[in-house]
Amino acid sequence: MQVELRDIRKTYGPVKANAGISLRIPAASIQGILGENGAGKSTLMKILSGFILPDSGEIFLDGQAVSIRSPADSIRNGIGMLHQDPLDFPPMKLIDDFILGHPGALGLGKAAAAREFRALAEQFDFALEPEAWVDSLTVGERQQLEILRLLWLGARVLILDEPTTGISLPQKEKLFATLKRLAAEGMSILFVSHKLEDVEFLCDRAAVLRQGSLVGEARPPFDTRTLVEMMFGKEVPLAERRTTVRESGILQVRDVSLEGLRIQMRNVSFEVRAGEVIGLAGMEGSGQSTFLGACAGLSRPVEGSFCIEEQDMTGRSHHDYKKEGVAYLPAARLEEGLVPGLSLTEHFVLAEEKKGVFIDRRKARRLAQERIELYNIKGRPESTVESLSGGNQQRMLLALLRSPLSLILVEHPTRGLDIESTIYIWSKLKARCAEGTGIVFISADLDEILQYSDRVIVFFAGKVSPPLPASSLNVDRLGALIGGKLWEELESEVAHA
Amino acid sequence: MRDSRPNRTLLQIGAIALALLFTTFVLLAAKAPPLAAYLNLGLGALGSWEVISNVLVSWVPLLLVTSGLLLTFTVGLWNIGIEGQITVGAIFSTWAFRLLLGSGMAPGLVILAAFLAGMLGGALWAMLAGALKTFGGVNEIFGGLGLNFVATALNLWLIFGPWKRPGVASMSGTVPFDPSLWLPTLNPQSRLSPIAVGIAVAAILVVYGMLRGTYFGLRLKAVGKNPRAAFLLGIPTWQYMMASFALCGLFAGLAGAVQVASVYHRLIPSISSGYGYMGLMVAMLVNYKAAIAAPVALFFAALNVGSIQLPIVLQLDSSLAGVLQGTLVLVVLLAQGARTRMLKKEGL
Question: Which of A239, A323, B102, B118 has the greatest number of beta carbons closer than 10 A?
Answer without folding.
Answer: B118
